[in-house]
Write a structure and sequence with these properties.
Elements (H helix, E strand, L loop, with lengths): L13 H16 L6 E2 H8 L3 H13 L3 E3 L4 E4 L1 H23 L5 H11 L5 H13 L7
Antiparallel strand pairs: 1-3, 2-3
Helix pairs in contact: 1-2, 1-3, 1-4, 2-3, 4-5, 4-6
Length: 140
Amino acid sequence: MTNDALHEDHALTKASEDYLETIYRLSLEGAGDGSVRSVDVAEQLGVSKASVNKALSTLKESGMVEQSRYGRVTLTERGREYAALVWRAHRAIRLFLESDLGVEAQRADEEACLMEHVLSEDTMGRLIAYLERQGLDIPE
């Protein structure tokens, strides 16, 4: 399976999930309306604004985001729920890699970003339950 192939539990490609997760994370950090600028998404991911615009078209077609005529991007309810799951998976995997395997923080973060896109919902649920049994809370 390639990195952009759809996984049985993932409705979006890895790339689309990365964009969605970035929009979600930026919306949590931003002003109260939950919208983000596409230029901030491009900067965060290290991609061109054209790449962001192409990804946003795909996410709009999937019903995950809306974009105002002034260009600000907002997650739909469906997009917010999906992005929150991806971000939670990222944090759980990163926590496991750091706490249980002793992986250095930056490497754990990078590898969690790869792994979050391919683990099934069942496996993620088991990992989260394992972390909770260990008394570890998934950080925000």
